[in-house]
Write a structure and sequence with these properties.
- The chain is an alpha+beta fold.
- The chain has one domain: Double Stranded RNA Binding Domain (2-Layer Sandwich).
- It is 36% helix and 21% strand.
- It contains 4 helices and 4 strands, in the order βαβββααα.
- A 4-stranded mixed sheet has the order 1-2-3-4.
- The radius of gyration is 27 Å and the shape is elongated.
Length: 143
């Protein structure tokens, strides 16, 4: 990575253990794409008022030479609210899948479909067919 991984906390205090988990997960992402420019992780608590526990959000921004990947995971279940590990894994897993998709497209492994020829309507032959196929006042065809 050209720029070191940044871990930011918004609305909460800094946690050394969570920061270490984020840095370790970012290093794993680098194994999938050698030319990753930067990675930043933002851990936020978007809602200050809540009924049961805290709701957390983890966003992962990965900058590649071909574009940017942004993933987001929320800790909504009661067990996840106490332990941010599962939400962190979901966010980095989604980022890994998107990096793999980018690499597949770059290698040309994604199947492309050929265009089918456009079917033309045959011209009406008889006078009766011309009347039936003629557009109605609303612009739609009768058949």
């Amino acid at each position: 990575m050209q720029v070191p991984t940044r871990v930011m906390f918004d609305g909460i205090g800094r946690s050394e253990a969570l920061e270490a988990l984020c840095l370790r997960a970012a290093l794993k992402l680098e194994r999938f794409h050698d030319h990753m420019t930067s990675c930043s992780v933002i851990v936020t608590r978007p809602h200050r008022r809540h009924v049961q526990g805290d709701a957390w959000e983890i966003r992962v921004h990965v900058l590649l030479p071909t574009g940017e990947i942004v993933t987001r995971a929320t800790a909504t279940e009661t067990a996840d609210r106490r332990n941010l590990g599962p939400a962190l894994r979901r966010a980095f897993h989604a980022a890994r899948r998107r990096i793999q998709d980018v690499l597949r497209r770059q290698r040309g492994d994604v199947k492309t479909h050929t265009l089918r020829p456009i079917r033309r309507r045959r011209a009406p032959k008889s006078e009766l067919e011309r009347e039936l196929v003629a557009p109605t006042p609303s612009g739609r065809r009768a058949l």
